[in-house]
Write a structure and sequence with these properties.
The protein is mainly alpha-helical. α1 runs parallel beside α4.
């Protein structure tokens, strides 16, 4: 199975980036990966992550409001995505 076949829907691609975010590996997609996270993970994992990012960016996915994968990652990293989900009633607020 090719990597590009893993990302046939925008939701599949979004889940990949959410997973990176939860691992503290999300970075601006226009930055060189080794500069961004090479101090956290090795060259092999950097290459694997870049392969997935390339596959996502090469697929013609509809990112809607985010316009592209980079826009989604910016919203995810900045916390704006959580606010939009809350506003749409799609995410429950954590109870203290």
């Amino acid at each position: 199975m090719s990597v590009s076949s893993l990302y046939q829907t925008t939701m599949q691609a979004q889940l990949f980036f959410i997973n990176l975010h939860h691992q503290n590996l999300l970075f601006p997609l226009d930055d060189p990966i080794r500069d961004a996270i090479g101090h956290i993970v090795g060259d092999e994992q950097c290459a694997q992550i870049q392969c997935h990012i390339d596959a996502i960016q090469n697929n013609d996915l509809d990112w809607g409001l985010f316009q592209d994968a980079d826009g989604f990652c910016i919203a995810l990293h900045s916390g704006e995505l959580n606010e939009w989900l809350k506003a749409m009633g799609l995410m429950h607020r954590k109870v203290a």
